[in-house]
Amino acid sequence: MQQKAQQVEELKNQGNACVKSGNYGEAVLHYSHGIKLEPGNHLLYSNRSLAFLKLQQYYLALEDAKQSIKLQPNWPKGFFRKGEVEYQSGNCTLAIMSYKQALLLDPSNSEIQDALDRAKREAVKLRKELSREPWIFSAIGFVIGLCIVLADQYLTKEPSLKYIFAQLILMVVFGGGGFLCWKGYRYLQDSQRTTLLEAPVDLMEELDTKNEEETNTDKTPGNRPWKKGGIGAARQRYKQGKS
């Protein structure tokens, strides 16, 4: 038992050394080996969460942070790790909640307080951007519409937009188009932040399912969907002709 604990400690130290030297992939291997030997070690999950975060594997980093919290609910660093993952993936609101939880467990921790202040500043910055962006995109669309109107008036012999009302409608339409472009841009940004913390698609599981379906398919010659003009189709016609 003591030998096992010593081996786990050695693996943790090796992982820590790899993190310090920037070998995050190797650090993950050391921590994972230690977790296999001692699945209830919250420190190993916390450290591996940091290594995954450095590799920008946000989902895996978040899962390890959650597991660390599950194993040691009163340990502030578990919530701090969770907050770091959420902050780095652009989810400042979630990060603020995690940092606050960590600070409740360790009110005098300056590192957690600094991280909380940083996340709050970033959240304020994002709110300001959200309030400005619709106007900027709409203004760009309006200016494009105005340029089209001016080009129609001064660069063509017979302008298509002769009435001021039609010109205004065109500019408003382009302004609305700019607003819709902003909505699409914001949707993509929000989706990207959300998917960073979602589980990746298990390609091996899908492949196994596909192989299983193919195995269960009836492959008898009479039911096989032969390609037209292929050798299989020729053999099928030959057998049908003899019967």
From TrEMBL:
Cellular component terms per the entry's GO annotation: cytoplasm
Subcellular location field: Cytoplasm
TM helices/strands, residue ranges: 135-155, 161-182
Protein name: Stress-induced-phosphoprotein 1
Matching SUPFAM superfamilies: TPR-like
UniProt TPR repeat ranges: 8-41, 76-109
Domain of life of the native organism: Eukaryota
Gene3D superfamilies the UniProt entry points to: Tetratricopeptide repeat domain
Ranges where the record places region Disordered: 207-243
Major location category of this protein: cytoplasm
Keyword Disulfide bond: no
Originating species: Potamilus streckersoni
Compositional bias ranges of the Basic and acidic residues kind: 207-217
InterPro entries named in the record: TPR-like_helical_dom_sf, TPR_rpt
Coiled coil ranges: none
Key words, A-Z: Cytoplasm, Membrane, Repeat, TPR repeat, Transmembrane, Transmembrane helix
PANTHER family reported for this sequence: HEAT SHOCK PROTEIN STI1-LIKE PROTEIN (PTHR22904:SF532), TPR REPEAT CONTAINING PROTEIN (PTHR22904)
GO MF assignments: Hsp90 protein binding
